[in-house]
Amino acid sequence: MENRTIIQTTNLTRRYNHLPAVDNLNFEVKEGEIFGFLGPNGAGKTTTLLMLLGLSRPSEGSSRVCGLDPLRKAKEVKRLVGYLPENIGFYGDLDAVQNLEYVADLNGLGRGITSKKIEELLELVGLKQDAHKKVAAFSRGMKQRLGFAELLIKDPEVLFLDEPTLGLDPDGAIRIINLIGSLNRDRKITVLISSHNLYQVQKISHRVGIMIKGKMVAEGSVESLAEEKFGVNEKEYSLEEVYMKYFQEV
Ligand SMILES: Nc1ncnc2c1ncn2[C@@H]1O[C@H](COP(=O)(O)OP(=O)(O)OP(=O)(O)O)[C@@H](O)[C@H]1O
Ligand SMILES: [Mg+2]
Fold it and tell me: 5-89+156-249 has which CATH code?
């Protein structure tokens, strides 16, 4: 059976001051996929994610997330999707557990169930030892890991991750990448990950999309895109080589 379509955009367009940031964008992500959402600075990736979450209104076109229109069903979409923004915000005066309790409250989850869950999630992201440390004293990597715990509180079916490894040390980045891989494998979570770290993206993505100037110029597995650009070859191309080829030709 063909997998369900989880994300779909149809001629999705967003203009700022008459200039298109997202320009007639069409792409699809299927259930169970990790989709690497790539493109240079200013390509329109974050703008796309905001529209998929119903946080920004398209100038034209439409999108569906789990079959729902994010503009009309913003609340339902937010319940299904865990969104890790470019800059995550926490309450510095609260500790890790208190921050997660706050998010659980916002999502209407009961205290009884959540305290156990919070403990499990802090363990999962490797913050068990820091559970009662004030978040103001967290390093960037610790905040990023806490961000993942926050995402997982509501058992999302889909994750939108905007640069989840930005500014992390190699060990921290590898942990996050492995965590994303295991969430996808073990919990069947569909993932849309935007990142400039092509090596990491290649390690976990089933397919990638390359967005340049608001348009998706390529979509597929790294192997299929390599074949399209370089022809059939013995050599295994890296995502970086494939990406640069598309980038240079636009
Ligand atoms: N609120 C806004 N007002 C005006 N222009 C905006 C706004 N948000 C984004 N833009 C413009 O839209 C374009 C796309 O920006 P966007 O943040 O979506 O890019 P991105 O692909 O996420 O880039 P990066 O890799 O740097 O995060 C850019 O030209 C940006 O300047
Ligand atoms: Mg961005």
Answer: 3.40.50.300
Distance CA 54, CA 77 (A): 8
Nearest CA to ligand 1 atom 17: 46
Q: Which atom of ligand 1 is nearest to the CA of 163?
A: 27
Ligand 1: atom nearest CA of 47 is 18
Parse the chain into domains and list their residue ranges. 5-89+156-249
C-alpha 233 to ligand 1 mean position (Å): 37
Closest CA to ligand 1's atom 26 = 41
- Give the strand pairing for 81-84 and 158-162: parallel
Are the beta carbons of 104 and 115 closer than 8 angstroms?
A: no
CA 105 – CA 115 distance, rounded (Å): 11
Express each pLDDT in 162-198 by its tens digit.
999 988 888 888 989 999 999 999 999 999 999 999 9
Beta strands in 4-125 (DSSP E): 5-16, 19-30, 34-38, 60-65, 81-84
Do 82 and 154 touch, CB atoms closer than 8 A?
yes
Confidence (pTM): 0.93
Question: 3-class DSSP state for residue 90?
Answer: coil
Mean pLDDT over each residue of the chain, to the nearest integer: 93
Q: Give 7-44 pLDDT, tens digit per residue.
A: 999 999 999 999 999 999 999 999 999 999 999 999 99
Ligand nearest to the CA of 56: 1
